[in-house]
Amino acid sequence: MSGYYKITCFCKQCNGNNTETASGNIATEGITIAVHKSLYNEYGDGHEIKINGVGYREIQDTHSVGKNVIDVYVGDTNGCHCNSNPINGRRYVEF
């Protein structure tokens, strides 16, 4: 389902100090993304996507925010800076 998606980010702190994903993996910076449950069910765990301006990431987690939102894991930050992260924005995504 390639197209434009709203890209947001999440870190260990804003995820309640939980780094375990829906797939049972540990969220990893530079790899892990979370997508709506319907996309997770359609493409499956480990499916690689390309996010313009961000790079390749793997579907490893789910969220219920919205079908057109992709959440990029940005690691264990010293204080959450997710709202001001330059990753945030509308970007083209190739599935």
Describe this structure in words.
With 95 residues, the protein is mostly beta strands. It has one domain (3-94): Beta Barrel (Barwin-like endoglucanases), CATH 2.40.40. The protein contains one helix and six strands. The protein has a six-stranded mixed beta barrel. The radius of gyration is 12 Å and the shape is globular. The protein starts with a strand and ends with a strand.
Provide a compact summary of the structure.
With 95 residues, the chain is mainly beta.
SSE topology:
Blueprint (H helix, E strand, L loop, with lengths): L2 E8 L21 E5 H7 L4 E4 L3 E9 L5 E5 L15 E6 L1
* Strand order in space, largest sheet: 1-5-2-4-3-6
Helix-strand makeup class? mainly beta
Per CATH, the class reads Mainly Beta
Oligomer: single chain
Kindly estimate the percentage of residues that lie in beta strands according to DSSP: 35-45%
State the distance separating the first and last CA atoms: 6 Å
**H/E topology pattern:** EEHEEEE
How many structurally independent domains? 1
Count every helix, treating DSSP H or I runs of 4 or more residues as helices: 1
Mean pLDDT: 90
Main sheet: strands, sense, barrel: 6 strands, mixed, barrel
Approximate helicity band: under 10%
